[in-house]
Design brief:
three-stranded antiparallel sheet; alpha+beta; 20% strand; Immunoglobulin-like; 254 residues
C-alpha cells in the first residue's frame, strides 16, 4: 500500500466516478480540480497529525517514539475521505462563485459524505508502518553501447529500507534507445532510511517487470537488457501496515 503522504491518493478520474458533471462545473466556474485535490490532501494531513498526537498519551512518549503522519498507510476509508472532501471543496467554491442552489446542495452532500468516511476511518483505526518508505522519485535514464535493437523503453524504481521493506514504485520514466544501445537506470533523491532500490522496466507502461531481487545500492546504475527478465513481479504499490492505531473521537473541520 502507498503512504498517504505519497498522494494525492485520489485522481480526477476518482472524482468524476463520483460526480460525472464535475469537469463541466469546474470549467464553467474556473475551478482547478487538481488544486482542490492537493488542498484536500493538505487539510486531511493536518487533521491526521492532530489525531495522532491526541491518540498518544503523554506517558507513552517516555518509551515510545512519536507517531508521525508520514507513517500512515493509505486505506480505502482514508482515500474515500480525501475524494469526498475534494468534491466538497469544489462545490463550495462553485457555490460562492455563482450562488447556485444546486451547487450548495452538492457541497453539503459531499461534506456529509466526507464526515461519514472520516468516521469510518476513526472506527477502524489508522494503519501505520514503523519505518516509512515514500514513493520513489522517477529514475534517471540514459544509454550505454550494447548489442541490442533499439526502441522505446520504460522504467520505474522503488526504494527499499534497511529492513527490506519496499515503498511505492515511482512514476515511470521513458527513453528512446537507438540500435546498438541499452537503457541504464539510476535512482536519485532517496531519504536517509533508504539503503537501495529495485528496478521495474519493460516496453509497455502496463507491464514493468522487476529486474533485481536484491536491492541495488543507491549509487548503482542498472543496465536493462530487453527480454532478459520478463516474468518478474510487476511494480508494486508500497508497504503493508505494521500495526493499526485506534483513534479517539475528536471534533475536526468539515
Amino acid at each position: 500500500m502507498a503512504l498517504f503522504v505519497d498522494g494525492p491518493a485520489s485522481t480526477i478520474d476518482d472524482l468524476t466516478d463520483q460526480d460525472a458533471g464535475l469537469l463541466e462545473v469546474a470549467l464553467n466556474t474556473g475551478i482547478n480540480v487538481s488544486t482542490k485535490l492537493r488542498l484536500a490532501t493538505q487539510e486531511i494531513l493536518t487533521d491526521l497529525q492532530l489525531w495522532l498526537n491526541q491518540s498518544q498519551p503523554t506517558l507513552d512518549l517516555l518509551w515510545r517514539p512519536i507517531l508521525r503522519v508520514e507513517q500512515i498507510v493509505l486505506t480505502p476509508p482514508l482515500k474515500r475521505w480525501e475524494t469526498m472532501h475534494a468534491l466538497s471543496l469544489v462545490y463550495r467554491d462553485a457555490y460562492f462563485s455563482q450562488l447556485v442552489d444546486r451547487y450548495q446542495a452538492k457541497w453539503q452532500e459531499y461534506a456529509k459524505l466526507a464526515r461519514e468516511a472520516r468516521e469510518h476511518l476513526v472506527a477502524t483505526g489508522f494503519a501505520l508502518v514503523n519505518d516509512p518508505v515514500p514513493q520513489a522519485a522517477p529514475p534517471l535514464l540514459s544509454t550505454v553501447p550494447g548489442p541490442q535493437g533499439g526502441g522505446t523503453f520504460y522504467a520505474s524504481v522503488a526504494w527499499v529500507n534497511g529492513s527490506g521493506h519496499e515503498g511505492a514504485s515511482s512514476f515511470p520514466s521513458s527513453i528512446t534507445v537507438a540500435d546498438g544501445s541499452l537503457m541504464t537506470v539510476a535512482a536519485t533523491g532517496a531519504p536517509k532510511n533508504v539503503v537501495g532500490f529495485r528496478v521495474y522496466a519493460g516496453t509497455s507502461l502496463d507491464a514493468l517487470s522487476q529486474q533485481n531481487d536484491v536491492a541495488l545500492p543507491m549509487d548503482a546504475v542498472y543496465t536493462y537488457v530487453p527480454g532478459q527478465i520478463t516474468q518478474g513481479p510487476l511494480a508494486g504499490a508500497g508497504q503493508q501496515p505494521d500495526f493499526v492505531r485506534p483513534m479517539p473521537r475528536m471534533m475536526l473541520r468539515g
